[in-house]
Fold:
Amino acid sequence: MLHDLTLDGFGARLVPLDPSHAAELAEIIDDDLWRGMTSPVPVGAAAVEAMIDAATATPGRLAFAVLDAASGEVRGSTSFYDWEPRLLRVEIGHTYFARRWWGTSNNPACKLLMLRHAFESWGCARVALRADARNTRSVAAITRLGATPEGVLRSHRVAPDGSRGDTAYFSILSDEWPAVRDGLLTRLAPARTDA
Structure:
């Protein structure tokens, strides 16, 4: 889904994902970073460009390149997807970041920007997030955001090798958003000067 939405704050800038980001994204993607994804590892800029084309062609998906606001360096990518305006719900995912951004303010900044847009601009009643249940790093990151665990969908995912895995599901509801927002703002306090 082509879009013109840009989100800025806390040192991060989310811009519409397009083929110009393919080469920089290809440099950060490897087997370990891609573990838990349901698509094969895209190897090289051409494969990443094809993945970008597929993402932007998907109805209900707004895909972003995540940039360093100061330098313009591509940090990774994330998306809104399964956007259902009539039902006031959306999911956040398809997220991956270069290792140097793991454990920094990058993920909470991106999620705060996206959640704020979903709840305060779109008026969402529900935002969901999910991860491969075996991906303890992603599950822990979603938990730290303040999302509520909803359970595990068994045999819900198919890996590129054909094996099946479980999906851990989480959500944030509109009445929970103020507390989640405040928790993220507290985590991001050192980065607030550019918010």
Notes: Residues 64 and 85 are 19 Å apart (CA to CA).
